[in-house]
Amino acid sequence: MTDADPRAELKVDRLPDLPDGREVWERLGHKAGNPFSTWEWASTWWRHFGDGREQHVLGLRAADRDLVAVLPLYVASRRPLRVLRLAGHGPADQLGPVCLPERRAAVFAALPGVLSELGDWDVCMLERLGTEGGRPDLAGGMTTRIESSPTIGIETTEWDEHLASKSSNFRSQTRRWERRLKREQELRFRLASDPERLGEDMDTFLRLHHER
User: Fold this and answer.
1) More confident site: 10 or 161
2) pLDDT tens digits for 180-200?
């Protein structure tokens, strides 16, 4: 696929509403490299904040029917204007179409045509769009606010290795706060590797993130 005329090559499908549709976009969400693009995040958020609202979960497919992107929209309000927003907004730090980083520019360029086909809306608010690997301005909308992203790029799965790549001041501050949390709040870490506990873990993560 090329970026020259992505609308000619991307076809739009309706995908199952949340919390269904796991098998459709789970693989793509995990490869996107963003936890807020996963089905796990979107379905957990929907259970807490979106249940009962009208959804428009759209899939963008290439000519070979391969799923290129997922656009999880819902109707946030109906009066005085019919407003579409991305499922997961608010507590999420980075949203946007669920797609591989190298596909983002083409997907953003296709959004005006996709939204035009959808119709029956007045305002579409796409918030906290990360710019890495894509060009949100290609969507043709109006930028109302720009802020620094709170996300941190981590190149290793080992915490000590990550700290070793930082300055001595950063390491000192991090260790100091870690010791204080353990002492005063009984802080403990556990890897969320049990599929049976994933729903509970995501609920806890969402609650703590919201309280922050």
Assistant:
1) 161
2) 999 998 888 888 889 899 889
The vertex-132 CA angle with 86 and 161, nearest 5°, equals 110
99 close to 107: Cβ distance less than 8 angstroms: yes
How far is residue 202 CA from its own chain's centroid? 14
Residue type, 201: D
Q: 65-109 pLDDT, tens per residue?
A: 889 999 999 999 988 999 999 998 888 888 888 988 888 888 888
**Residue 6: how many other CB atoms lie within 10 Å:** 23
- CA–CA distance, 44 with 209 (Å, rounded to integer): 13
Rounded CA separation 133/45 (Å): 25
Neighbours of 179 (CB within 10 A): 11
**Domains in the chain, CATH or no CATH each:** 6-139 (3.40.630), 159-211 (no CATH)
Q: What is the pTM of this model?
A: 0.69
